[in-house]
Amino acid sequence: MFSKILIANRGEIAIRIIRACKEMGIETVAVFSEADKSAMHVALADESICIGSAEASKSYLDAERIVSAALATKVQAIHPGYGFLSESSRLAALCEKNQIAFIGPKSQVLSKVGDKDKARQVMSAAGIKVIPGTGILADEKEALDAAEKIGYPVMLKARAGREGKGLRVVNEPADIEISFQMASREAQDAFGDGAMYMEKCIVPARHIEVQLIIDELGHTVCLGERDSSVQRNYQKLLDEAPSPGCSEAVRLELYELAQKAAKAADYIGVGSVEFLVDTDENIFFMEINLGLQAEHGVSEQVTSIDIVKWQIRIAAGVALDFTQDDIVLRGCSIQCRINATATGKVAFLHLPGGPEVRFDSALWNGYEMPSYYDMLLGKLMVHAATREEAIRKMHAALCELVIDGVKKNIDEHIGLVSDSKFQSGAYHVDFIARKVSSINAHETKSVKRLEG
Questions:
Q1: N or C: which end of the chain has fewer CB within 10 A?
Q2: Residues 6+ apart with CB under 8 A from 68
C-alpha cells in the first residue's frame, strides 16, 4: 500500500480523497493555485505545494507541474480526482515514466477510450450498439451532409468534451454552421482539442451509467446503476441510484453491456459506462467515464462500498476482497449538485444533518469563491430505505441547507424533487427543458390575458 499520495485536484473531491487517505493511514500532499492558498483542502492535507497562478491552465491542468510537485514531495502515487487531468493520457504517461503510480486507468487505456470517437469504434467492434453517428468531421460542410443522412435533430459533440462543453443540439440545417463553430471553439478553449463528431439526438431517453470496479486480476464487480437524466444543458444536476425507470430485464442487460465494454477497453480500476435507454428500451453506448465520477457517492450509499478507498487499493495492486454475490443494493440514494450562479463570499453556512445525510463540500464561513473554476458549492446526498422516503429526506435537507452570501440553485432543486413528474420516476433527459418550456408558455398566456 502507498504511504504518501499527491492529490492533483481541488475543492470537495480533494477533501473526499484526503479523508479516505487519513482513514487508510496514508499521508497526503495537496497542490494548489495562488487563488486557492486558503482553501480547505490545503489546510487538511499533511503537506501542500503551490503549482502556479490562478488560471487552471497554469496550475491544475499542467501535467508537468503536477509531476514536478510529486517528485519534489517524494510521493508514491498521484490521485487526479475527477475533471481536470483525471482523463489525461499525458499525465498518466508522465507518471509511468517517472515511476509514480497513477490512481486511474493506464495511459494506453486513456488513449484508447478517452477519445470519444475512438471509444465508439472500440465498442462497435466489440458488438455493442452505439448511437448512430459519424467519425471526426472535417468541417461544417461535412457536418451538414452528415446531418441530412442521420436525420434531425442531431448532436454535435467534441471528441474531448465533457460536462456539456463542446456539445450542441441542432434541429435544422440553418443552425449547423454556427453550432459547429461554437462547439469546436468551446472545446478548443476548454480542452485544447476542437475536433467534432455527430450523433443522432435520441429523445426522449434516460441517461443511465453503470458503476464498475475491476482489479488487476480481472475480477469485475458491478455496483449498480445511476440515473443521471435530470440535466440542464447536458450538465447533470441530480443523480439517483437505482434508476426508477429501469425494468429488471433492462438493468441486467445494462450490467452485462457495461462489463463487456470494460473488457473491450482493457479497463482496470474504478469507472462507469454511460448509456442512453430510449422509450422502447433500446440501449445505446455513450462513453466510458474514466476513473472517479462526481456522482460516485450515490453508488457508495446503496452498496456500502467505499469507492475511493478501493480505487487507491487497486492502483496499489490489491485484489478485491468481495465478489458480485456480496453486493446487495440497499434502498435509494439521491444527490443534488448545489451550484453557485455567481461568485460571492459565504457569509453564513448551515449544513443539514440526520441519519444518512451527506454534504461533500469545501465551503466554510467566510470562504470566497474564486472565479477561475467551476461553480460547484457541494454535493448533497441522502439515503433511505425507499425512493419515496429518500425524496422527502432530500426535500427536508435542501430546506435546511443555508449558504448565505452566494447565489445558488437550492430553490431549483426543491422544485425538482417536488415535481410530480420526478416523483413518479417517469422522467427523461428532456425533463428540465420541458419544465422550462411549460413555465414559459404559462407565463406567455398570463401576459396575454393581462394585456387583453
A1: C
A2: 51
Residue 93: which pLDDT band, with cuts at 50, 70 and 90? very high
Side chain identity, residue 219: H
Q: How many CA atoms lie within 13 A of 433 on its CB side?
A: 13
**Could you give the CA distance from residue 227 to residue 276 in angstroms, rounded to a whole number?**
10
Pick from 199, 197, 203, 195: nearest CA to 133: 199
Angle of helix 116-125 relative to helix 248-264, nearest 10 degrees, comes to: 110
| Calpha distance 17→160 (Å, rounded) | 25
Q: Render pLDDT for 27-86 as a digit per residue (tens, 0 to 9).
A: 999 999 999 999 999 999 999 999 999 999 999 999 999 999 999 999 999 999 998 899
Whether the CB-CB separation of 196 and 274 falls below 8 Å is answered with no
pLDDT digits (tens, 9 = 90+) for 131-187: 999 999 999 999 999 999 999 999 999 988 777 789 999 999 999 999 999 999 999
According to the model, what pLDDT value does residue 209 have? 97
